[in-house]
Write a structure and sequence with these properties.
Elements lengths: L15 E3 L7 H12 L3 E3 H7 L2 H11 L7 H15 L4 E3 L7 H7 L4 E6 L2 H15 L4 H5 L8 H16 L7 H14 L5 E5 L5 H4 L10
Parallel strand pairs: 1-3, 1-4, 2-3, 4-5
InterPro entries: P-loop_NTPase, Sulfotransfer_4
Protein name: Nad dependent epimerase dehydratase
């Protein structure tokens, strides 16, 4: 995770659903979880750019039929998500943050942790990232690169997802940020939901959860 993709570990079970928006310290949060829980973390931004091509292709298949229109599509989406998360102790970043209901269905004992950041700096950061990710020539620049060649296609696939979930696309604003926090409070039982501000560092992660500590 970070400068390289994580490798799943046989027998590892998802214990944390990282529901924080991109640019809220998700990479360093993932690293903290790797250390505290001693296992691989699926950081979406890393896996869809540096991981095996099957990862990003799986997400493209899923979001082509999301939200599920019937039980068969719902079951298929759950199977795809399970195939992505099997062997990881946590999942963070995009697209995890929009799949919280599905992840809670698959992992009913997992803790949902949402990382937070000063909203003004977050907005500026997301604007810069969005501008870079939507440059018209990016598709051609990335075409020769394994996995990365699908990056623009992934961004295109996520656009209607964010529009559906938050009512806007890129660059996302505080509207998306606030709606995301509100949505989490509506769908996640309070005993399973933790908010962590990145300015407090990662020590609070150690003591998150209903039992006061996520570390065994």
């Amino acid at each position: 995770m970070g400068q390289r993709a994580s490798t799943p570990r046989k027998g590892a079970k998802l214990r944390v659903i990282g529901a924080g928006m991109p640019r809220t310290g998700t990479a360093s949060f993932s690293r903290a979880l790797e250390i505290l829980l001693d296992g691989p973390v699926y950081h979406g931004g890393t896996q869809i750019t540096l991981g095996p091509e099957r990862d990003v292709k799986t997400w493209l298949e899923l979001f082509a039929h999301w939200p599920a229109k019937d039980d068969a599509a719902k079951q298929r989406n759950l199977e795809l998500i399970r195939s992505q998360t099997d062997g990881f102790i946590a999942m963070t970043d995009n697209p995890c943050l929009v799949l919280v209901p599905e992840l809670m269905t698959l992992y009913p004992d997992a803790l949902v942790i949402c990382t937070l950041r000063d909203i003004d700096s977050w907005e500026k950061s997301m604007e810069a990232v969005s501008n870079a990710a939507t440059m018209w020539f990016l598709r051609f620049v990335l075409l020769p690169l394994p996995t990365m060649r699908y990056f623009v296609q992934f961004i295109d696939a996520m656009r209607p997802v964010w529009l559906y979930r938050y009512g806007e696309t890129e660059p996302p604003t505080r509207v998306s940020y606030n709606r995301h926090v509100k949505w989490l409070k509506e769908i996640v039982p309070p005993e399973r939901l933790v908010f962590l501000d990145v300015k407090d560092g990662w020590e609070p992660v150690r003591f998150a959860g209903p039992e006061g500590c996520i570390v065994p």
